Amino acid sequence: MTLDFGVIWQNLPLLFDGMHLSLVLTALALTGGIMLGAVLAVMRLSPLRPVAWFAAGYVNVFRSIPLILVLFWFYFLVPVVIGRPVGPFYAALIAFALFEAAYYCEIIRAGIQGIPQGQRAAALATGMTQPQVMRHVVLPQAFRNMTPVMLTQAIILFQDTSLVYVVTLHDFMTSAAIIAHRDLAIVEVYIFAACVYFALCFGASRLVGWFKSRLEVSR
Amino acid sequence: MITVQQVSKWYGDVRVLASCSTTIAKGEVVVVCGPSGSGKSTLIKCINGLEPFQQGRIVVDNISVGDRATNLPKLRARVGMVFQDFQLYPHKTALQNITLAPVHVARREKAEAEDAALRLLARVGLTEHADKYPAQLSGGQQQRVAIARALAMNPIAMLFDEPTSALDPEMITEVLDVMIKLAEDGMTMIVVTHEMGFARRVAHRVVFMDMGEIVEDRPTTEFFQGTVSERATRFLSKILQH
Predict the structure, then answer these.
(1) What does the alpha-carbon distance between residue A159 and residue A23 come to, in Å, rounded to a whole number?
(2) Mean pLDDT, chain A, integer
(3) Residue pLDDT, tens place only, B90-102
(4) How far from the centroid of its chain's Cα atoms is residue B90's Cα?
(5) Residue ranges in chain B assigned as alpha helix (H)
(6) Is there a contact between A140 and B149 if contact means CB atoms under 8 Å apart?
């Protein structure tokens, strides 16, 4: 058997479009997930019981169902509910953002709770109000500590975007699969896809490692 | 200036403060000592409202701490506090640790706050460490920065919660020296500590606590020479043995 990687070159534009979609979806879902996750984290830590329960319920529901099911829901059910189609991209984006928010909520909550109580006491003792303590003392430290875990979660999200084929979107993986079967170059294309995923994700996880080592130095 | 009247506090069923009363006048230095778990730290944390209490009354500069209507942040801004484990903000330099509250609470200009912070660092002997992070400083240096941070709000009184007990022996003196200077400058101070040398040298009064009660509250010389209770004598003999 001879391998002909020329098929990659011929289909580069298609693969590039797929990668573009994967990256855009990751970036947008990440932004939405972190913002919603931060709101949920603050709700989970709220002294108001119903607020905390709501956030806890949200997290438990989304962490207990498969991502692919969430994608289906938003693709098939939301149009039924609102009476018009939302389009596969927006359905996928909403599904990913809501799904990731559950995980980011827990990451952010753990980050906030990881800051020693003494730091809050010290800041309060200087006359700061609770929101000022959060803004200037707790959150900056919490986010610094969370960066490695958040990046790891972003890598997982990037890999998970390959699931969007179920709602007819063509991400990098789906484009690769189409080319592989159409041009009968299954081995070549899948080797290439694996290399691309590896390069991106390994590079990102090295970045995580670098962040971690920097955090240890400054501690 | 600070009045503590019949203050009691419970954690669930456990009474940690039992009807404590004392008064601290302006410019007075009071050392609070006693076995661990006797409630000394809890008592001074009640004074700036970091710990709530269930009974009694604490008045600081005519403001009742336990009152629901009291603006606690405003009150705390006027009372400095230094903790056993320093609690400097690890993500900020020594200088930034000191200027944070003056800039955001007292709303001073940043440049003005930095000038004041540099003067305070000079006062605690750390001018050359202004741009270092807490992790780059020794324990004694961190505690001196923490004292400067508390002084930056121009407090009317300072509370010290075992400021030297987390320090290696060779660093205790540098912190005590700063505190002695502060006392000699006339600062009103409540110091929870076992440093009896410090108490002898600068304290006007010594308060001895045991099991949440104020057992002794006497002028310093009287406390060390006079007829003190059996509990206090036993405690003193334990910590002065070596």
Answers:
(1) 10
(2) 89
(3) 999 999 999 999 9
(4) 21
(5) 40-47, 72-76, 94-104, 110-123, 139-151, 169-184, 196-202, 220-225, 230-240
(6) no
Q: Are B139 and B166 in contact (CB under 8 A)?
A: yes
Report yes or no for ipTM above 0.90. Answer: yes
Residue of chain A minimizing CA distance to B154: A126
Residue of B48, B75, B85, B91 to mutate, interface with A, max A Cβ within 10 Å: B91
Q: How many CB atoms lie within 10 A of CB A58?
A: 18
Give the residue on A whose Cα is nearest the Cα of B72. Answer: A127
Question: Left if phi > 0, otherwise alpha if psi is -120 to 50, otherwise beta: which for B22?
Answer: beta
Q: Are the CB atoms for B139 and B168 separated by under 8 Å?
A: yes
Q: What is the pLDDT along chain B (242 residues), one digit of tens a residue?
A: 999 999 999 998 999 999 999 999 999 999 999 998 899 999 999 999 999 999 999 999 999 998 889 999 999 999 999 999 999 999 999 999 999 999 999 999 999 999 999 999 999 999 999 999 999 999 999 999 999 999 999 999 999 999 999 999 889 999 999 999 999 999 999 999 999 999 999 999 999 999 999 999 999 999 988 767 888 888 888 887 65
Residue A185: partners with Cβ closer than 8 Å, 6 or more residues away: A4, A7, A179
Q: Is the minimum CB–CB distance between B131 and chain A shorter than 8 Å?
A: no
CB–CB of B153 and A121 under 8 A? no
Determine, for residues A121 and B83 on separate chains, whether the beta-carbon distance falls below 8 Å. yes
Task: Yes or no: say if B207 and B17 are a contact pair by the CB < 8 Å rule.
Answer: no
Which of B184, B232, B237, B241 has its CA nearest to residue B32? B232
Asked whether the predicted pLDDT for residue A187 surpasses 80, the reply is yes
Q: How many helices (H) and strands (E) does chain B have?
A: 9, 10
To the nearest 10°, report the CA torsion of B196, B201, B204, B206.
10
